[in-house]
Structures are given as structure tokens and as C-alpha cells.
Amino acid sequence: MNTDLNKSHDKNDDDFDTTQETVDQTRRRMMTSVAGAAVAGAAVTVVGTEALAATKEARAAYADPAEPGLPKVDMKIVPDRTALVVVDPQVDFLDKNGVAWGVVGESVTEQGVVDNLEQLFIAAKASDMPVVISPHYYYPQDHKWKFEGTLERVMHGIKMFDRADPLNLDGFEGSGADWMPQYKKYIEDGETIVCSPHKVYGPEQNDLVLQLRKLGIDKVILAGMSANLCVESHLRELLETGFEVAVVRDATAGAKVPEGDGYLAALINFRMMANAVWWTDDAVQRISQAT
After folding, report:
1. Chain segment 69-81, per-residue pLDDT in tens
2. What topology does CATH give the domain 54-289?
3. What pTM did the predictor assign?
4. How far apart (Å, rounded) are the C-alpha atoms in residues 138 and 237?
5. How do beta strands 82-87 and 131-134 pair?
6. Which of 41, 183, 209, 281, CA to CA, is 20 to 30 A from 55?
7. CA–CA dist 199, 216 (Å, integer)
């Protein structure tokens, strides 16, 4: 990420040192490599065919160890007790014009996340599996916080997931806080549960756990954005509150910055903590066979 993002900052003023200009510079730098990866590896999946998971290059780069040192565990899908939970399926993360694309676009592209999430939505809806969205929104009052962590500062500075007001949708349609267009028919079907927003990374401040418990759900298939931040934080909280969780590894992605590869960091922890780690095509097959 542009080193300008790491300038010292005095929170007594109302500005953020992360500016749109620095993010645009980062986006331009990364989009060159992302475009090539998109042409070479990204493909549109078609309903009824095997879901495209990660590109061959990504599968090789993030392959499981040939000789694992940890025990193999798995999660069985049980109808009426299992839900698909999707974190932050929003434009700012997943669209090339989203404000975070400069740092997550390469990973989103190589994992095939946009199409893979749609495959999960399709499979869950076809199987009458509950679908729950844990979104990320920031309102004007959230920009008055007196302190924030590193990525919080970035998100606030680039106005990620911004909405004008919690009680209306003025300016929501087509904004960075909006759903990806191809997901709207699944999210806005009158059946999908959209939780109140989480505010930092985990679901501790929203009603995700309450909604799942009230539905009698104790098993979660987890996907969405981004891998080592909101998805991993959701994983940790769900595990701590007694859920079984399977993470869909190529239906999430992470930032790639000089400080490290967020996707790789998350994948290591998924392997160590989750009850199962699946590829999208495996998850889709399991969901379809569980009915």
C-alpha cells in the first residue's frame, strides 16, 4: 500500500491522512497486474456447471500442504440447522470501481470470489437454506470516532461503505455500500436476512448471532469479504459462541500490501480454527446433496 497511508496523524483534527488520491495511486499500480490475471484466470460460471474456484495459479500458490501436520476435521450440513452467512458482499470490496479494489482486487480476481459467491447464493436458495448477510456500513456519526486501528483508518479515510443515514437509503443505490448487482435478486428476495451492520470487523455489535440462534441454526457456511479481517473475525466470534463453521476458501479474498498477504494470513488461521475449509465447488455439491 502507498506509504502515504502510514503517515503520523493527529486525531485532534477531523482529517484522515488516507486520501482518495493515495488510494487511487495504489489502485492504478495494482490494476495493471489485476487486469492480466482477470483475462487469464477469471471466468463466468454458468448455473448447472462445475463452479470455478480459484485460478490454477492461485490453487498452486495457496495449496494445502502435501503432508499436513494437523488432524483432518469436517462439518456435516444438517438441513434446518445450517445457514449460509455472507459477509460484506458489497461494491466497495468486490467491484473494480470500489474504493478498496486497489488492494483487494488482485486477490478477488485470482480466487474468483465474485462468481463463487453467486454460486453459493444459487445453491443455498435452491436448497431452501437460510441465507444471512452481515453487512458493513458507516454513518456520519462513525466518522467522529476519536481513534481507530490501521485498517479502520484506511476505511474511514476512503469513505468505504458510507451511507448518509441509518434510517433511510438516500444515495445507497449504486454506491460502494450497495450490494453487488448480481447478488440483489438473492439478497432482496424477501427471504434473505440482512443483519444490522457490523462496525469494525466482527459481528459482536450486530444481530447476526441472535438471528441465527432464533432460527435454530448451529452450523454456518461462511464466505464473503475480507479474509483476514471481517471473515476471520466472524469465524472467531461464531466459534466462541458455539457454532460449527465451514469457511469457503475461494469465496473470500484479502488485501495484498507490502505488510503482507491478507488472504494467506487468513487461510493459515482458517486451517487451524475452522471446523472445515472447503472450495466453492465442494460447498455447492454438499449444499445440493444435503436436501
Report:
1. 999 999 999 999 9
2. Rossmann fold (3.40.50)
3. 0.78
4. 21
5. parallel
6. 183
7. 25
